Amino acid sequence: MQFATAHCCYSRSPARNMVFQDLTPFNMYRYRLETFTESRLTEWTHVPFTGQSVDNSACGTPPLPWDITIEVPPMFQDFTKKVPVPHTAAAKRCHKCKGRGKYRCSQCAGKGKLKCLSCGGRGLSHGNKRCIQCGGSGSKRCGPCLGRGTRSCHVCKTSGQLLFYIQLTIKWTNNIFEQVADQQIGLPVTLFSNVTGQNVFTDENYQVYPIISFPDTLIDHISHQGVQEHRDKFGRTMCILQQRQTIELIPVTKVQVQWKGQEHSYFVYGTESNVHAPDYPGKCHCNIL
To answer: Is pTM beyond 0.70 here?
Structure first.
């Protein structure tokens, strides 16, 4: 009844008066493999130098990226952290302002004024009257530099110097392989992404192995495919910290009914009891624009 009510063009009469003929249960399984990986990337970066301490090479030998100890966040959650590589810092003159803390305004070429667009720089508007916009001067104060001809350096925040260092970016990613064992019962497996089931199997370890001898042999094949895919994809380019594979039982029931002497069927699936009834009887064919 709720299914019919949720669709404006579906009549409630079939839901009230249809006669149930048969209920056929199916065990549909969803396999999920999670591979929690860590990757590290180094690159030069800089921040304004305001007198902070400089950890340069004189303080020690810079460590290699994977030699830096970093606390691992909770497993199977995406997270990114950026830290400076020890002993790689150096204070240098700002490349943008050449150490002056400010630079010439490119908008007005350092003049502090711009030609008045209203009068074209003549100081006179239509009818040879004094231009209201510029007061007859033919120019207006430059907005970006406020008439100063120079602009504060946004790179060094007017300090004139930058602190350069190597930044290490650590990225933890939960990579997911998920697939439903399709038993070809007429229910599109894409619908299962919106429902949940009951967890019947969990295996978590540094490295998991393909499942064998599961009651549904499709799960054996899917598990082998997922494990091999993640091993090939992440085993050489990233550090695999942990893997977890689960099997979820999603309840599905095919319902056979009769209404007005004709046979019909629909599916009820997931713990949410969602309904899939593309051939629901008693629906109109109106077009809502």
So the answer is: yes
